[in-house]
Amino acid sequence: MSREKILAAVKFNQPAAMPLPDMEVLNKLTDVRTDLVSKYKAIATAGGSFVYEVSGFDEIKTIINNEFKAGVKIISALNELSDYIYAETVKHEDGHTFADVELTVLRTQLGVAENGALWLTEKDMGSRVLPFIAQHLAVVISKDDFVPTMAQAYQTIGDADYGYGSFISGPSKTADIEQSLVIGAHGPRSLSVFILS
Amino acid sequence: MSTATTKDHPHLAAEFNRDEPRVNWHDETLWWVRAKRDIAAHKLPEWELLRETASQIKFNVLSNLSTYLEQFEANATKNGIIVHWAADATEHNQIVHGLLEQKGITKMVKSKSMLTEECHLNEYLKEQGIDVIDSDLGERIVQLANEPPSHIVLPCIHKKKEEIGDIFHEHLGSAKGESDPKILTETARQHLREVFLTRRAALTGVNFAVAETGEFVICTNEGNADMGAHLAEIHIASMGIEKLIPERKHLGVFLRLLTRSATGQPITTYSSHFSKPQEGTEIHIVIVDNGRSIQLGREEFRNSLKCIRCGACMNTCPVYRKSGGHSYHTAVAGPIGSILAPNLDMKKYADLPFASTLCGSCSNVCPVKIDIHDQLYKWRQVIVKEGYSPKAKTMAMKAMALTLASPTLYRMGGKTGRLVFKYVPFAVNNKLNPWYNQREMPKAPDESFGEWYAKRKGAKNS
């Protein structure tokens, strides 16, 4: 009932059709592909992320082993990091049991230099809640997978079909108490980014 | 919220102004946020083009809104999302309650949604026996304090950490006198984690809904919307009809503007795109009109529907910063709220378009280029014409018009004024004169410019 009423009122009151603006100027203006890794690194670090440039997965393993105690629950979505629980084997129905996950390690194909954001879809996550419920999050990205701005990011995503996707740009944070920045609101207390050369 | 009040902006602002150090702190804190916005904006050489593009996209949305709404509904439905339509606040609240009732759910976790504040959803659900917990830290704080948010992005910006410490001590069991933001945030994290893990229903707002794909985007820094939605059986997302954007690629414009304008961050920590429900769970979207289609028909004011709720106009507004969000007695405070609220209830919110100096700073920082201060000025004219302006102000204006139209009355008035200032200053230096509240009245000159000029001419001639 209300559907028809609302649509009729909107149709009656909306102004004469206005065209969509040309997006190409903005897209071209921002498509500067130099130093993307160092730009990303600076912005992400300023946003509270830990960024590591690594040569391979062994180096990532060493860093994880140094940062996390042996025996803590780690879920990884990477074949290369097989010492941990494999994300593809977890089910989203088990979401509530991830409350004790210490670290989730995911792989992304898309990072944004201008704001430190990393694009992760449901497929990359295994379960949607994993990158949020874990105490810590780590994301692996290849150095060639960065784009300058969100304009190019959405060009890369194109018309991809996903059930859920999120740009994640740092650890969970809040400044709701007197504008004091506190890292670790409801989600991960840290975001580590491993850039593979 | 429950603080139903008939007091208008000047009275509520006067109450806020009783505590001068707090007003100064509030003022400075928000100006600091505004300064961070400037730094972020100035880093992008294409900033103005970005604003212009966003404004044009939104204009296109408003001019094709009925088509986009239908397109969005069709695509969301195809994705397995269930779409509901609500003509007003009551219908929205009933739909939400109905969904919970169907599943026998009595406890819900909610992330930030100004629309549900506008609809007074929390109070409604409480009356129906549903327990609602707000999960955004700032919103949780004001909820525990039994207050509405005072700012759309920074809900408890009016509260000092010591007060928050007291609230947490009383409700969440933190140590007495604890006011360290880190420790208080950790206390909330532990408390809300338990909430996320035990709630079967989650309600969120919507930042953007994409007609082309049927997906919607929610932006948070805390991750609370995602924690709630992904752990619940049923995710209800409430959105106003104006949240639509045409295509996915347009997110690339709005996500670049939103947080830079709001807090000076380049993007929120999480920008989450919900397209399909997880297996075994449901996503419902409630599309709400609640007066928006009427505003769409007001040619002078329809641009207000372009708003993406960044709060930049509040942070920059000299009146907002010094009068506090609660003085606007409406869900969305500040300059943008003052042009949205009269559309809903012209009589109740007749005071709001006057709560501005018309300095234009709001329009200058608006990421979608809404002509906010022009609309405030235009609302004043509508409100006076419709007879909703404050009586004292109307009478004063009429007396002023009469005086300025008659040279005799003008001279007489000036003379009387000067005599009063000189011989009976207490007649104006008192509480009945609002100009005297924060300032001394000036010393009146002995004669008017007219009198002085006449004398001077006479002196020359002799």
Can you put this structure into words, describing what you see?
The complex is a heterodimer of chains A (197) and B (462). With 197 residues, chain A is α/β, with parallel strands linked by helices. Chain A has one domain (35-196): NagB/RpiA/CoA transferase-like (Rossmann fold, 3-Layer(aba) Sandwich), CATH 3.40.50. In chain A, 29% of the residues lie in helices and 23% in strands. Chain A contains seven helices and twelve strands. Chain A has a six-stranded parallel sheet, with helices on both faces. Chain A has a two-stranded parallel sheet with strand order 5-8. A two-stranded antiparallel ribbon of chain A has the order 6-9. In chain A, strand 10 (173-174) and strand 11 form a beta hairpin. Chain A starts with a helix and ends with a strand. Chain B has 462 residues and is an alpha/beta fold. Chain B folds into three domains: 8-42 and 311-393, no CATH class; 44-135 and 200-294, NagB/RpiA/CoA transferase-like (Rossmann fold, 3-Layer(aba) Sandwich), CATH 3.40.50.10420; 406-461, no CATH class. Helices cover 52% and strands 10% of the residues of chain B. Chain B is built from 21 helices and ten strands. In chain B, the strands form two sheets. Chain B has a six-stranded parallel sheet, sandwiched between helices. The relative contact order of chain B is 0.12. The model of chain B is unreliable at 1-5 (pLDDT under 50). At the A-B interface, helix 1, helix 2, helix 7, strand 9 and strand 10 of A face helix 2, helix 3, helix 4, helix 8 and helix 10 of B.
